[in-house]
Design goal:
8 helices; four-stranded parallel sheet; Rossmann fold; homohexamer; 247 residues; 8% strand; alpha/beta
Amino acid sequence: MQLHLSAWPEIEAYLTTSKAILIPIGSTEQHGPLGLLGTDAICAEYIARAAGDEGGFLVGPTFNVGQAQHHMSFPGTITLRPSTMIAAMTDWANSLRHHGFERIYWLNGHGGNIATINAAFAEIHHATSFDQSGQTHALRCSLRNWWELAGVTELIRSLFPSGEGSHATPSEISVTQYACPGTAKSAEMAVKIAPSGPIFDAEDFRRRYPDGRIGSDPTLANPEAGKKLVDTAVRALVREFQMFTKG
Amino acid sequence: MQLHLSAWPEIEAYLTTSKAILIPIGSTEQHGPLGLLGTDAICAEYIARAAGDEGGFLVGPTFNVGQAQHHMSFPGTITLRPSTMIAAMTDWANSLRHHGFERIYWLNGHGGNIATINAAFAEIHHATSFDQSGQTHALRCSLRNWWELAGVTELIRSLFPSGEGSHATPSEISVTQYACPGTAKSAEMAVKIAPSGPIFDAEDFRRRYPDGRIGSDPTLANPEAGKKLVDTAVRALVREFQMFTKG
Amino acid sequence: MQLHLSAWPEIEAYLTTSKAILIPIGSTEQHGPLGLLGTDAICAEYIARAAGDEGGFLVGPTFNVGQAQHHMSFPGTITLRPSTMIAAMTDWANSLRHHGFERIYWLNGHGGNIATINAAFAEIHHATSFDQSGQTHALRCSLRNWWELAGVTELIRSLFPSGEGSHATPSEISVTQYACPGTAKSAEMAVKIAPSGPIFDAEDFRRRYPDGRIGSDPTLANPEAGKKLVDTAVRALVREFQMFTKG
Amino acid sequence: MQLHLSAWPEIEAYLTTSKAILIPIGSTEQHGPLGLLGTDAICAEYIARAAGDEGGFLVGPTFNVGQAQHHMSFPGTITLRPSTMIAAMTDWANSLRHHGFERIYWLNGHGGNIATINAAFAEIHHATSFDQSGQTHALRCSLRNWWELAGVTELIRSLFPSGEGSHATPSEISVTQYACPGTAKSAEMAVKIAPSGPIFDAEDFRRRYPDGRIGSDPTLANPEAGKKLVDTAVRALVREFQMFTKG
Amino acid sequence: MQLHLSAWPEIEAYLTTSKAILIPIGSTEQHGPLGLLGTDAICAEYIARAAGDEGGFLVGPTFNVGQAQHHMSFPGTITLRPSTMIAAMTDWANSLRHHGFERIYWLNGHGGNIATINAAFAEIHHATSFDQSGQTHALRCSLRNWWELAGVTELIRSLFPSGEGSHATPSEISVTQYACPGTAKSAEMAVKIAPSGPIFDAEDFRRRYPDGRIGSDPTLANPEAGKKLVDTAVRALVREFQMFTKG
Amino acid sequence: MQLHLSAWPEIEAYLTTSKAILIPIGSTEQHGPLGLLGTDAICAEYIARAAGDEGGFLVGPTFNVGQAQHHMSFPGTITLRPSTMIAAMTDWANSLRHHGFERIYWLNGHGGNIATINAAFAEIHHATSFDQSGQTHALRCSLRNWWELAGVTELIRSLFPSGEGSHATPSEISVTQYACPGTAKSAEMAVKIAPSGPIFDAEDFRRRYPDGRIGSDPTLANPEAGKKLVDTAVRALVREFQMFTKG
C-alpha cells in the first residue's frame, strides 16, 4: 500500500489497524561512470514498495535527496545541508505523528545519510522528551540500511566476493538494473577496482576517487543479481517491519 | 532525459549543450475522497518527464512534499514548514548552480506551493544579489503551474465546464488516472459540487470543506481527459522550456 | 485608532469590542529617479491610518522593510531575507495572538512582498494546524494590496491609461505626493516609458531597468490623483475590513 | 535628510560625501496607563530626524518593534524574539554595507533593546572578522541611547528630580507629548511612584509592576519638558554623529 | 557541589532542598602575550567552584566558549556566533528547567559575553512569557560578572591603581596564576600600558591593540593578588547566591 | 600542550610546526546511580590531555555538553538539540580554520554523540565543498571514540568480561575514578546487570532502564582498571594523532 497512491479515507482506515509506516530514504548523487544518480533512492523505494505490497503495510513518499556534499565535484549530485535535512525529516515526522502514526521505519539506501538520519531522530525524540503537555504521544523512529537486512550482506558477499567496495557497488547497481530495465550504462573503467579511503570534502573526494567509485567494480552488476537481492531484502523487510510494528 | 536515471558523465555532457534543468514540484496532501495523496507530485512529474523525453531536456528529481499545512486535518497529508521548504529548495538550487546550471524551471502541481516557491526564489536570488565575489554566476529560477501552460486552462474549461473547482479537481485527478492506471477510486459524495471559500489553518479548512474538496466534482475525472491534458501540457511545456533556456 | 499612539488600557478596551487589527506592510526600496525609497510603506500606512480613523478600527505599527533583493543595485534599498521576514512577521502575529487578536489584515504596498507574506501566513497557520493543546486560539491572517481594493484598479486605469507600468508607477508616486507634501522630485528620464520584463537578481534587474522603473512613466504623478486614489482606497478598505472582522 | 523620503539618486549623491547613516530603533510596548505604546520608537525617530535635518546627515527608516517580551502581559505590546531581531538587524546592516555605507549609528529609545542590539553588532562584526575575501569592506555599528546623549541625563535630573524611574518615565512621555501633539492621556494612578525591581518574564513583570510603570511618576510629563529634552538631545546628537562619521 | 562530579540521585536530592544552580560562563580568547586563552573560563569556574563548596550550592559545567569575534585575529581564539550562543544557552536552560530548576545564576568571566548573555535571557524568558499551557514553570536567569561582586572592584583598584585596563587585566591574570599554578608566562611588552578604545571587528581590533591587551599592564599580575581576589569574590558570591535563591 | 593554558603567541608558534589540534568532546548526562554526570567529558578530556602532554600536540577546550535527550528523565542531564550542536561545532571548527588549522581530531566520550558529530562534519565539509573562492583552505575533521582506540576494546573485554554493557559501563566509570580521585560513589543496585535494548525518547528510556544503566554492572569499576585503560588509550592516541596529522 502506497501513501501517494491512496486517498485520505484509505489512510484513515489503515490507521485503525496499524500506527506504523515505512519511509524510503535515498540520495541523488553520482555513482561512478555506470551507476545512476538516483541509485540510492531507487533501491530503497523499490524494495520498500515490494515489501509493502507483500506485507500489506503502508509505504510513504520517498525522501529522495539526502546528504551528499562529498559527491559535489561530480555533475548531477544534489545535496541538502545536514541542518536542512534534519528540519525536513522533522517536518515529515511531525506530520505523520499528527495523524496518529507512532512508528516510522526509515529504509535507507545511502551510507552517507546514516549520521544525519540519526541526528534527525534525536531532534525528533528531543521534542518528545521535552514535551510536558501530556498531549503529544511518543513517536519512535528507526533506521535500517537495505543492504543490512537479514541475509542481504551474506548474499552480496556470495554474489560479489571481490569488487563490492563501498560506493557505486555492483550490488546496488544490480538492484537498479533490475528495478529500472533499460537504464544500464556501459563505460570504460580506468582501473578495474577503484581505490578505497576516507571521506572529507568534495574536492578531496574527487582527488582520491577520480571516477566516483570507492573500492568497487560495478561492471560486475547484472539484473539477475538485482532480482536476488531484492527478493532477499523484501522477505527480510516484511518480517522486520512486523517486528517493528509490535516493538 | 531524467537526472536520476543518468550517470554523472551524461550530466557533464548535457551541460556542454544546455545550462537549464526542470524540477517537478508537488505536494503530498489529501485530494478529497477520490484523489490520490500524491496527485500534485504525480501530475508535475508525469508531464515533466514526458516533455523532457520529447524535448530532449533534463528533468531532475521530484520535490514531492511541499506546503500543505491547511490539509493537515486529513490523514496522510505531509507538509514542510515554509521556512524548511525555502531551505531545502535553496540547497537544491545551490547544488545545481555549483555544477554550472544557470536556469531552473520549476514545474509546479500545487497552488498552495506558489507563495513559498516564490519566496524561495527570492532567497536564492538574494544570495546572488549580495554576492560581490564575482565568482558566483547568476542562477535564474522560474515557476510554472502545469494547469496554466498554454492551452491547458482552455482545455480544462471545455472538458469540465462546471465542477472543476480549485482543489481535488477533475482535471488533476484525470491526469493521475491516466498517469497511474489502476489507481482510480470510487466514493459516495455527500454533495456533488464541494463548497468554495478561503484557506486558513487545518481545522478551519476541515470545517469548511468536510471531505477535502474545494468547489470541485471529481467524479467527472476520467483517464481520457487526463491524456488530453497531458498531451496539451507537454506540447506547451516543450516550447516554453526552450524559450526559458534562451531567455 | 493607532496602536502606537494608544496606551495599553485603550487596547484592552478595544479588544472587548473587536479582535481585528490592520498592519500596514511596505518596503524600503528604490522607486526610480522620482519615487521615494519609502513609497510602499508610505502608501500602505497613509491609507491604513485614514481608514482606521474613518472606520474606527485599530491600525498597528508599519512593517516598513520587506522583500526587495532585486532592487539592491540601487543605493538606499534595504531588504530582509525572506526567511527573516517570515520570522519577524511570525513574531508580530504571535504577539498579537497572545493579546487575544484573532484577525490580522495586512495592507500591503509592495508587489514583491506578496509571496513572502503568504509564505509567512502559512508559517503562522502551520503552528495553529499542529497545535493540539486546545489552548492556542486560531489566528487568521489576510493580505490585501492597496491597489487592488475595490475601485482602485479602475481608477488607476482611468487616471493613467498609459504609463502606469508595474514599478515606480504614477499612481503610487501620486499617493506619496499627496501624503507627504513637499517631497515631489524632478528628474530627466532617459526614456518616457520604462521597459518591462521579468525579475531575477539585482544585477540583472539593473541591466534590464537602468533607472529602476518598470514599464512606468512617473512624471504623470500628481497629488490630485493621489487624493483620489487615497479616498477611493479608504472607502473600500473601511468596508472590506468590516467584512474581514466578521468573516 | 531622510532615506525614506529620498529617491535613489539622492542617496547615491550622499554616499559621495559620507558613508555614515543613523537608524532610529525603538520598541512597541506598553508604557503604563499614560504612555504611548510607540513611545520608544517615537522618541528615537523624532530626535534623529530633527538632528538629521540640522546636521545634514542621513536618517534611515525606524526599526520600530524590538525586544519587549517582558511587557507581553499588557495588551498592545509586540516583540521580536532576540534571534529574529539579530537576523533582521543583520539584514538591514548588510543592505546598507552593500551600498557602501561604512558606519551605522543606531539611536536607541528602549533600554530592553540594548543587549540584543549589541549581540546583533557582534553578529554583524563576526561576518567581517571571518571574511577573508578582501572584498567585504568593514562596517562599524555603534549604539547610543538618546537619554544618555551629552547633557540629557543632567537635564532629566533637573526636570524630574524624583519620579523619573526607569520605565514609562516622565521624560520619555514628555518627548512624545511634544513630538505628537494631542496624544497625551490621563489616568488615575493607584500609586504615585511605581515600584522598582528586576525584570524576568512577562507574568512576573505584571505581578511586580501592576500598571506597567517601573519607579516612575509619568503624571509629571509635559510637552515643555519634552521640547527641552529634544533640543538638548538634538544638539548633542549632531556633534556626536559628526565625531562618529570621522571615527 | 559540582554537577559533573555528582550522580543523578544526588541532583535529585539537591532539588528537594534548592531549585537554584550556578553556571560559570567564560570565553576562549587571546589575553595578550601573557594571559591564558582560557582566562575567562578559568576565573569564572574557579571562583564558582570555591563558592559552591563553601556555600553548599550546586555548580554546573562551565560554558567555556563564548562571544569573541573581535579577538579572531589572534591565534587560538574560538568564538560562537551570537545566534549560536543564544541557542546553546537556551538548550542548557531548558534542560535545567525540565528537571525543576527555577533559578540559574550565570557567573560570567568575559565582558564581551554580557550583551549576548542578556539577549539569551530574553530568548529564554520569551518562551515563558508566551507559554499559556500552565505547565511550564517560570525560570529566572541572572548574570553577574565576577569582577563586579561586592568588594572586588574596590580590591582591584587598590591592588592595581594603574594598568588594570579592560582586557588582559592584571587582576584576571592574577586569578589564573593562583588557580593554575605553573602557567604564568613572561614576555617583553612593546609598551607598558596598552592603548584603549572601542571594539568593532577583529582586523580593526588588532590594528588598535597590536598585542591584544586593552589599557592594561599584565606584568603586574601575581598569584598573591589572585588569592585575594578569589577570596573576596567567593565571600561575596556565597552571600549573593543565597539572596538569589530566595529572590 | 593545552590551548586554554597557552597564550596566543604560543599557538602562533605551534602553528608553524603543526596544523592539527585535538578537541575532547563529551556529554553531561546521567550515568546510573554510581556514575558521574560528567563521565563522558572527563574521560575524553583526561585521555586527551595526557596524550597531548606525551605526544607534544595541542589539545583544545572540551566540548562538554552534547546530545543527551534520551537521558532527560534523570535529573542533572543537560542536552543540546542536534541542530544547536551542529551550529556550535561548526563555529568551533571555523574559528580554528581561520587561524590556519587544517585538521581537527575530535576525541569522543559519548556514543550518543556519534551521529550528530558526523552530521556536523558533513555541515563543515559542505562549506568547503561549496566554496569556490579559492580562499578557504580545506579543513578535515575526524572522530574517534576513546574506547575504540587500538587495544582499548580488548582491554575492556579482559577487565570486564561480563557487565560492561553500553551505558554507565564499569570501564568509563573506572576512568573517572582514576582521573578524579575521591569521586567514587556507592549505591544499592536493584539488579546486578542492567537491561539492554534500544533508545528512543527520555520517558521511554527511563521505563526501560529505571536506574539509567544499560546492560552494565558499574560496581565492577575501580581506579586501577581506570589507570590501565588510560595508559592504553593514551599510547594509542599519541600514535593515531601523529598518523592523522600526516594524513
